Amino acid sequence: LIASGELLPRGAQIVPGITPIPKYMRAKGIVKGPSGAPRHGEPKDVIHDVVVKTQPIGANEYRAVPLYLGGTYNIIWAALGIPVSVFENHDEDVHIPGSGAVGLVVEVGEEAAKQGRVRVGDVVFSFPFETDPLSPTGGADLSFASPQITGFETPWGMAAEFYTGQVQNAF
User: Fold this and answer.
1) Over the stretch 56-105, which tens digit does the pLDDT of each residue have?
2) Which of 122, 117, 119 is closest to 168 using CA atoms?
3) What pTM, to 2 d.p., does this model score?
4) What is the CA radius of gyration of the chain?
């Protein structure tokens, strides 16, 4: 994958707007076992280095390289499967934990770019909260619009070579 450019070499310098986004990326992940059952336990035993497909970003999202990942209880709970297995929220075979990061923006979705809130090269604090901005339950307060905790209730957290965030949650 490295030779074909589909995966960056470990430790590669990433320059916003210049380094191409690879098809695959490295991450820390909790994986399902051969039987398809989640493997939960102590974080040191169940969080592994994985290579996964780089997820596309939406129109109102940005992609960032984590400069700092918050060591939150969400990572521990995701590993332990407490209070519920993170795999109950999605059908993926890998769960990438990580809720809250400071990141260097390397790509911005089309609508997010038009808004100008986040630009390639910005350093942002990524609040670990995902909502549905088009939800009728949101009204003036998006915290009511189908809220989910990034990396706990969603399969793609911030403990990865690249992560995505919603532009309204970048500060």
Assistant:
1) 999 999 999 999 998 888 899 999 998 899 999 899 999 999 988 999 99
2) 117
3) 0.89
4) 16
